[in-house]
């Protein structure tokens, strides 16, 4: 069977930019050196491109996890062109198909089950799914966004203005055009590309399946450091409508923090979060499954499995009871019964349940660790 036609433009762009970044940039660093201002500007542009993809292309346009002011959307559109990862319309269309058909080699544009190379970059080097390149039926909502359509229409112009114009203007201002083109142009672009591509490849083979094993996505805190929080990919694939990827305060997710900051100053609203109880139950069910699998070959497997399943049922019951009560308290507060609620038996019951649940979580953690 013949392979799909090679997309020579993509091959040329990826190859040439990578060779210049890998050879010319180190050579220039050794023979001439780079100034601190040039390095800082390159890092700033890298962050701008990355956050435009994660907060804009991904969490705003692909998943509609929040709504953003037109100014913010415009900034994302420019940054997305600077990142050179196709228009927001096309990127979002690909990504929605990926989520809907994840790991399906025949439909998923960058299925991880076709191997690291394919999911990382190979899928863009040949016309694997040419029949749908101009089919945007799954992003009809984005067609109503004038900024998305403006960027899509003028994408090539914006790419040239940002990828050549920004490094050139900075180089002319600072007095070193060549260094600026190499650092802010080529090296920044290659880093922007491959850190994003790692989410399609590495984040599907390296890390933990914390919440589900129904797809190949993994949670990886190391990848989160280089991808502005996108490394918590197992969570994302199960709770794709959540504006957060790292849901704990200590998890590195600057995209989440920026979106939250925008909401404080009126530049973003309607931030969507997955219910806490659903997140906890998914994590609990996955922990039960992995522990059960580890115990199958143990000499006392039957006894241990019974104890494990009993603790699971007890903890699940307490979680249901706790969150049901919590919802009732929130409802009462919304009905402006704050004073009455705080002094009611409901609050006493809530704090008792909270303490009991914490103790039960601790017991569960000790049990699953013991059986590890």
Automatic annotation (TrEMBL):
GO MF terms on file?
A: oxidoreductase activity, acting on paired donors, with oxidation of a pair of donors resulting in the reduction of molecular oxygen to two molecules of water
Q: Which residues form a coiled coil?
A: 298-363
Membrane topology type, per the record? Multi-pass membrane protein
- Where exactly are the transmembrane stretches of this chain? 6-27, 39-58, 155-174, 180-199
Which N-terminal stretch is annotated as signal sequence?
Answer: none
Where can this protein be found?
A: Membrane
What biological-process terms (Gene Ontology) are attached? Answer: fatty acid biosynthetic process
Q: Which UniProt keywords apply?
A: Coiled coil, Fatty acid biosynthesis, Fatty acid metabolism, Iron, Lipid biosynthesis, Lipid metabolism, Membrane, Oxidoreductase, Transmembrane, Transmembrane helix
Instruction: Give the Fatty acid desaturase domain ranges.
Output: 43-260
Where is this protein primarily located? membrane
This protein's GO cellular component annotations are: membrane
Query: Matching PANTHER family, A to Z?
Result: ACYL-COA DESATURASE, DESATURASE 1, ISOFORM A-RELATED
Q: What family is reported?
A: Belongs to the fatty acid desaturase type 2 family.
Name assigned to this protein: Acyl-CoA desaturase
Q: What phylogenetic lineage does the species belong to?
A: Bacteria, Pseudomonadati, Pseudomonadota, Gammaproteobacteria, Alteromonadales
